[in-house]
Specification:
7-stranded parallel β-sheet, 6-stranded parallel β-sheet, 13 strands
Length: 411
């Protein structure tokens, strides 16, 4: 049996681990791969009780996933990260020797550094699952200077990690074209290469179809209203102020509009911008919900938003919210310049690209989106696009399993 150790520089309880990492690992398990997972837990001693650790260990073991964990160190930033990488690499190498693990599957740059070191120590193969252009992300966020010491060191390290990898994964076709120009399913050295966007379990959304949209809207008192939804984080890369202005324009254009914000971020990040944009507090809901509740809320919405800072690093991004919106049958209103979003939204006719970001662009996008959602086949077209591009089993799981088969076949 092929055995893999998935290296993840996040904690198990992080939403992205619960909604992205674990579902993909279950897909690998279903393909006959023996799966172990290593996470890094912030404030491990205080944040985790022994009984909770045992609960998750038993639960994941019952699913065929062995969970291992190490403490995450935050400060001082660079030394703490280097320490975690070294400790993680040593742990991974020991585990690989003891349990016959032949593949290190590294999620992102830090995990790839662990995997590359473990490979040198204990042998095996490395999958570099590139979740974005990390050095450029820090530059675009204003944390590092383009060409500065931190940037140059990280780019050098990135180049070495790409050399050490035996297979690579990117999230978007645009990232593939930038990192591996002219390549499709292998790079110029013949190493396996796959484009795997952020997929979702469509079954979770299909189950909501048993509840009528009218029932959900009655439950939330949305009858006779145009509900515009947003799911995800606020601030940072997400254009919170622009999103609030867009919703303000939507409420002015159609006073029946209701704004639905489902977020794990602080509500204050959006509450004041919405107030400043003229959105009445009685006409919006800002709520923190568990991932499993999201399909129920989206079932009652009409349109969905995705405003992300357009910059070079985001050409490598695949917003999970886009998959969730389409799986819910919702046309998407978004800005351009993010991964493969432009091509998908326009090519599949499942949404509107706002251009420019401003009152004129907002008004035009709303008119187009309203026409789009009124088309009889609009919801089905969105769901079918989700099946083709973001289905966990048929897209994500199948491509990961195929990558493993190709990698093992090169042995």
């Amino acid at each position: 049996m092929t055995r893999t150790l998935y290296l993840c520089y996040f904690g198990l309880r992080e939403p992205l681990v619960q909604t992205q990492v674990l579902p993909y690992l279950r897909q690998l398990r279903d393909g006959g791969v023996g799966v172990s997972l290593l996470t890094f837990e912030p404030d491990l001693a205080r944040a985790w009780e022994a009984r909770e650790i045992q609960f998750w260990s038993d639960r994941l073991a019952a699913e065929g996933i062995r969970w291992c964990y190490l403490p995450y160190h935050k400060r001082p930033s660079l030394p703490a990260t280097v320490f975690d990488i070294l400790v993680g690499a040593r742990f991974a190498a020991r585990l690989a020797r003891r349990e016959g693990i032949g593949i290190y599957h590294a999620r992102g740059h830090m995990a790839a550094a662990m995997g590359a070191l473990a490979k040198r120590l204990a042998g095996g193969k490395l999958i570099f699952d590139i979740r974005g252009f990390m050095p450029e992300e820090y530059v675009d966020a204003g944390i590092w200077k383009q060409g500065g010491v931190h940037y140059r060191l990280t780019k050098t390290a990135e180049g070495k990690l790409l050399q050490a990898a035996d297979a690579m994964v990117v999230l978007t076709e645009r990232a593939r074209e930038i990192l591996f120009p002219g390549c499709t399913d292998t790079d110029d050295q013949g190493r396996p290469l796959a484009v795997i966007p952020c997929c979702v379990d469509l079954q979770r959304f299909a189950e909501m179809e048993t509840a009528s949209r009218a029932e959900v809207r009655r439950e939330f008192h949305w009858e006779g209203r145009r509900v515009i939804a947003y799911v995800g984080a606020l601030g940072g890369w997400y254009l919170t102020a622009e999103m609030a202005d867009f919703l303000g324009e939507a409420h002015r254009q159609d006073p029946t509009t209701f704004s639905l914000i489902l977020t794990q971020s602080s509500p204050e990040l959006i509450r004041e911008p919405l107030r400043a944009a003229g959105v009445p507090e009685t006409d919006c809901l800002i709520r923190r919900v568990a991932p499993g509740e999201i399909p129920r809320y989206l079932r009652g919405a009409d349109l969905a938003l995705s405003f992300i800072k357009p910059c070079y690093s985001k050409l490598a991004s695949s917003p999970t919210k886009l998959a969730e919106y389409l799986a819910s049958g919702l046309p998407v209103v978004c800005n351009g310049g993010i991964g493969d979003v432009d091509a998908l939204v326009t090519g599949e006719r499942v949404g509107v690209i706002v251009d420019p970001l401003g009152p004129e662009g907002y008004a035009r996008a709303l008119e187009t989106a309203d026409r789009l959602r009124s088309e009889p086949d609009s919801a089905n077209r969105c769901r079918e696009a989700a099946v083709r591009h973001f289905d966990l089993a048929q897209v994500g799981g199948r491509r990961y399993r195929r990558l493993y088969e190709r990698l093992v076949g090169l042995s």
